[in-house]
UniProtKB/TrEMBL annotation:
Protein name: tRNA-specific adenosine deaminase
Subunit structure: Homodimer.
Lineage: Bacteria, Pseudomonadati, Pseudomonadota, Gammaproteobacteria, Alteromonadales
Top-level taxon in the UniProt lineage: Bacteria
Cofactor note as given: Binds 1 zinc ion per subunit.
Amino acid sequence: MAHDKWMARALTLAEQAAEQGEVPVGAVLVRDNQVLGEGFNQSITLSDPSAHAEMQAIRQAGKTVKNYRFPGATLYVTLEPCPMCAGLLVHSRIEQLVFGASDPRTGACGSVMDLAQHPALNHRYQVVSGVMEQECGEILKRFFRLRREQQKARKSC
């Protein structure tokens, strides 16, 4: 299935984020089976709260196609987008979002709120959730488990 192929790429990018000490989220923007842009969380590395995986992928895609809108494109991301990123997807005019793990704290594409389908906005996009959900959730769980263990070890020293 095509969704699995691109989500697997997003998971590889999420692993790169984890290796840099970033929250492991990866994103790939695809149109006509071609990658337009990809990215992973870099908020800590870049000291930029907007440097989420989705933002990085969209920024790269804009440079690639020399446009800020991506009709007909699908964004694959390992974690449900936050409100900032869900809004970005409205403005970038993507056609479809495919995400792996839901975010019960800040998910803005169906979990906590649904900006993807909000009737007041001027663009809506299709949402497919739960693609490789277990793998996408596990990388996050592993990352935060390790981070808690590291914090506990620092406190006991």
